[in-house]
Amino acid sequence: MAIKTIILFLVIVFSITAFVVSTGNSHNNSAPNFECIGCHQGEGSTEIKIDGLPEKYIPGKTYKITLTIVSDNQSLGDVAGGFAIEASAGDLMVTDRKNTQLSEGFLTHTQEGSAFRKWTFGWKAPVQKTKANLTVMAVAANGDYSPAGDVIGTKGFSIKPEK
Ligand code: HEC
Question: 80: which of 74, 75, 97, 132 fits an S-S bond (Cβ 3.0–4.6 Å)?
Fold first, then answer.
């Protein structure tokens, strides 16, 4: 009797898990929110690099940006990393639909994109001449499909319009 109850319980738990996994918005397919640090933690170093941002922007111009996470945290699985970026001015633009997407105001990785630690996207500078801040939060994942053992990096970039 007790064993039957346990088996029934396990069957229910497995069904729910399978349902959540198959329909749920898993986090290696986009970040649930900007604060990776609230859930992910691990030991190691990370450095966030951005290429393609000008010293001073030309209002209205679109720049092609490459974001790279450099970390000593090795991934042992299919998932290597993820990120989210927010811009205080201008527009973040998806240029690589397979690996990046826009979600709730920030640009983030897709499931395919979580296989990498490097992504490209666009940033259209604002037309009105204002200072723009780009803030990045990134995770160098160890590929175990959990938030443990993943190293976080965060960095802000501030750019002004040219005169
Ligand atoms: C509310 C908690 C929470 C927040 C906030 C969060 N994550 Fe996660 N993340 C998880 C959980 C739970 C998993 C494991 C399950 C899954 O993949 O859905 C995960 C898995 C991942 C993985 C795969 C990890 C691996 O080792 O396989 C990546 C990459 C990832 N998240 C990126 C991010 C990034 C980037 C951010 C912030 C911009 C972020 N997450 C914010 C909870 C969170």
Answer: 75
